[in-house]
Design brief:
Number of helices: 8
Number of strands: 7
CATH topology: Rossmann fold
Distance between the termini: 39 Å
Helix content: 40-55%
Strand order of the largest sheet: 3-2-1-4-5-6-7
Largest sheet: 7 strands, parallel
Order of helices and strands: EHEHEHEHEHHEHHE
CATH architecture: 3-Layer(aba) Sandwich
CATH class: Alpha Beta
Bound molecules: NADP nicotinamide-adenine-dinucleotide phosphate
Length: 243
Amino acid sequence: MNCALVTGASRGLGRAIAVQLAKDHGLYILVNYATNHEAAQETLAEIRQAGGDGELLQFNVQTRSEVDHSLNQWREQNEGKFIGVLVNNAGITRDGLFMWMPEKDWDDVMNISTKGLFNVTQNAIQQMLRKRSGRIVNIASVSGMKGVAGQTNYSAAKGAIISATKALAQEVAKRKITVNAVAPGFITSDMTKDLNEDELKQMIPMNRFGKPQEVADLVSFLVSDKAAYITGEVININGGIYS
Ligand code: NAP
C-alpha cells in the first residue's frame, strides 16, 4: 500500500495537504506532529471523513534518534506498506531583527526546517531508492526566495531548503524520484494569525492571504503522475508577490 508522510500535519498547511492527498490519491496518511496530539487527531478525523485513512506518528523532526526510532518501528510493523510520498512541511518562525536575535531563535528555526528535512528525508528515501519511485515536496517560503527583513533566520532556513531541493533532485532523478519545493506567500494559519492582514494584503496583488487548501492543491498536483517530469523546481504560490 502506498503511504504519504506529511510532517507538521496537525494544523495549517500540513493538515490541508494531508487531507487532500488522501482525497486525490487514496494515499494512507502518516500524520506527523510535534506536541499537539488533539489537533493531529482532528486531522485524522478529517481524513477519515473524506473517505481516507491513516494514523498519527509523533516525532520531533529535528531529533534524529526520534525520527529514526518512529519511522523504523512503523516500517517493521507495516511490512508491505511503502512511504512513496514525503511532504517536509514542519516549520516554525521566530521573527526579530538580526542584531538582537537570540542564538536559540536562529538554531530552532534552522534545525526544524533544515535538520528536519535531512533527518526525515534520509530515512524515507532509502526505500524510495530501492523501489525506484517517490515524490518529495518541501515546503519553503517566499522568504527563502527574496529574503524578508525581521526573518533572517527563517529566510536562511527556507533558502537552504530550496537549494537542497535542487541538489537532491539531481541525485535521485534516475531513480524516478522527484523532489520539488513549494514557496507560499502569506497563507492563513496559526503561523500568520498575529500578523496585520489588512496592512500586509495591500502589498499582495491579489489583495488577500492565500488559503491552506490552495497550497494543498498544488502539492497534490506535484505528487500526481501528471507531474512526473517536474523535478528540482520551486513553485511560488503567493498571489502575485514578486519574488
Ligand atoms: P503552523 O500552523 O504553525 O503549523 C506548524 C506545524 O508544524 C504543526 O503541525 C506543528 O506541530 C508542526 N511542527 C512544528 N515544529 C515541529 C517539529 N519540531 N517536529 C514536527 N512537527 C513540528 O504553520 P503553517 O502555517 O501551517 O506552516 C506550515 C509550513 O508552511 C511551514 O514550514 C511554514 O514555514 C510554511 N509556510 C507557511 C506560510 C504561511 O503563511 N502560513 C507561508 C510560507 C511557508 P504541533 O501542532 O504539534 O505543534
